[in-house]
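INFO  loader      accepted 1 record
INFO  loader      residues=404
INFO  predictor   begin
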Amino acid sequence: MEKTGNAPSASAPRVAGDTPRAAADGSGTGDIRAAAARVDRARSRHIAANAADLGLAGKPRMGKTAMTFVILIVGLLVMTVVSASLGQLIIPFDQVIGSVLNKMGIHWLEGPTRAFGNEALWNVRFPRIVMAIVVGAALGVAGAVMQGVFGNPLAEPGTVGVSSGAAVGASCSILMGWTFLGAFTTPFLAFACGLATTMSVYLLARRGGRTEIVTLILTGVAVNAIAGALISFFTFAAPTNARDQIVFWQMGSFNGSRWQQVALVAPMCLIGIIAVQFMARRLDLLSLGEKPARHLGVNVERLRFLSMLAVALLVSSAVAFAGIISFVGLVVPHLLRMIIGPGHRTLLPASALGGALLLTIADFAARTTIQFADLPIGMLTSLVGGPFFFWLLRRSRSKSGGWA
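INFO  predictor   done
INFO  writer      dumping tokens
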């Protein structure tokens, strides 16, 4: 007769702790608890490492960050004086500084001694330099925000179509010869179309109250393609003079910048930069991933919308008078991210200074490289940004081990 009881059958699955010895000494349960503890410790170390990288925990390493800010600020001040001093009319450095101090009521140094020196500084060079600083800061910050929102170092403001949309508005204005706002008609339409294009990309990519990064990118690619076709049509249909204006506007330049234009662009760029600075901590949390960010209380969808709105404001304002300037939003944030880390509380202001410094250098090169000529600044930034983009692709491929 077969015995009956509590012994497991031969076909029953055996699990930890179902043998008499395991039940007696609890070793199976102890193994499970030890493994769970190891997993928890590993997860805690991983989260702590990510938080430390983002500056969310522990004491950040301020030495390298502080030195980076000092270099950027000093470099920007030096390039401002150099750019104001050199050109077709050379004004000594001390006289440039003296002219600025005299405007402030401080008469320690003598101002320009050459005829029309002050007029050249305050009516031509300083407005141009300040415009380069403002536009560079706006593009640098916009690039840092886009890379944070998309979680990709290859992202830039043009990804969501703001630059191509602005180019469509400017090209249409030039082709039609609209002047309902006088000299500000083309910049206004460039600003409005750039802002509208970005919002269109967001709304087209939105489904079920949510957006996805891949959908946003693909929608931006499609909208950029349509905008490119419209620009080509406007260029083809325009008469010779209008065609030249469209082409040169797309190349970008600070030639002809005036204080009145700076007064329109600077406040909007300042509002955008301040707004994204308040989003810095949430952008840090978003870089941990969408699900962790949601668990930590971040409204990811609202953050994404506000970030894209701020980027549209920054870039539309920047390109309204300066035209299309490429690669600043790609090169500057990525380089600074490698130097000072991914924490947006320091990355955003550093990107503003870095973008301002880069465009000040590029504008100086555009004015002085060829005598009696003003090179398109967008061409110069592309000459720098193109090789850097190629190096970035090669670096990403070598680190990941392939393109997959």
